[in-house]
Amino acid sequence: VSPIFAGDGLLVFMEPTSPKGVDLRTRGWFALHSGVVDSAGTGGEAWVSGTGHPVGDEAVRSVAAAGAGDEPLARYVLFEHAPTEVTCDGYGDVLLPAQRRWRCTP
Length: 106
Fold this sequence. Notes:
With 106 residues, this protein is α+β, with helices and mostly antiparallel strands.
C-alpha cells in the first residue's frame, strides 16, 4: 500500500478485488502501519487508523493520480481515508519527542 497525501485527503488506490477494499466497504475502518528499515527500528514508525470509503469522483481521482507519482491503472479503485488516530515513534537516529499521539473526531 502506498498512501497518497493529496488535496485534503489520505488516498489509496487498490485492486478492485483487494481484501482491504472489501474490509473498507463492509466495515468502514482501516489501520495502516509503516514498516521499519531494519530490526533495530531505524527511523521509527507510524500507525494511522480511522474510517475509509471508496471515491468515485473523477476530480479527486485526478488529484490522487497526480500525487501518486505513477499513473494508476484504470481498474484501480480509489479509497479516501479519514484518520481518527495517528501515533509515531522515533528510534535513536530520528529525534522526536516521546511517543506522540493525535486523535480527532470525524
